[in-house]
Design brief:
The chain is an all-alpha fold and about 130 residues long. It is built from 8 helices and no strands. The chain is elongated and about 60 Å long.
């Protein structure tokens, strides 16, 4: 059973990034509208909602996705500090947990361990906000 759990994709890895699909749909809507198709036609052709098409025909470009502010309960709130400590060779979860708790972290140790797991695998300190 342990082998099965180790081979299952993580939740983040199993969810494709919707941004390219949205951009393609947005471009299609804008192109159809640009050649004179009505909103009703575009809805029928694309299968998108009327509300979305109405919004998109008024926009010049697809807006950036809103991101919620990081809270002290999320390890990403302490990303810079954790990356610095990791680069200094401090990689023990318990020690890092104690240090960020002193900075105001109110989340659990297991969430911190999950956040740092790509670092442990050598995937770097990239933008790990989820």
């Amino acid at each position: 059973m342990l082998g099965e759990a180790a081979t299952k994709p993580t939740e983040a890895a199993s969810k494709p990034d919707p941004r390219p699909t949205l951009q393609t749909q947005f471009t299609q809507v804008r192109t159809l509208y640009g050649i004179g198709r009505t909103v009703a036609d575009i809805v029928q052709v694309t299968g998108l909602s009327r509300k979305r098409v109405d919004k998109w025909v008024r926009l010049e470009r697809l807006p950036e996705r809103n991101r919620a502010a990081l809270k002290p309960t999320h390890p990403a709130h302490y990303h810079a500090f954790l990356a610095q400590r990791w680069a200094e060779g401090i990689t023990k979860i318990d020690l890092l947990h104690d240090e960020i708790r002193n900075l105001g972290y109110t989340g659990c140790r297991s969430r911190l361990a999950e956040y740092l797991s790509p670092w442990r695998r050598g995937d770097g300190f990239g933008d790990l906000v989820h």
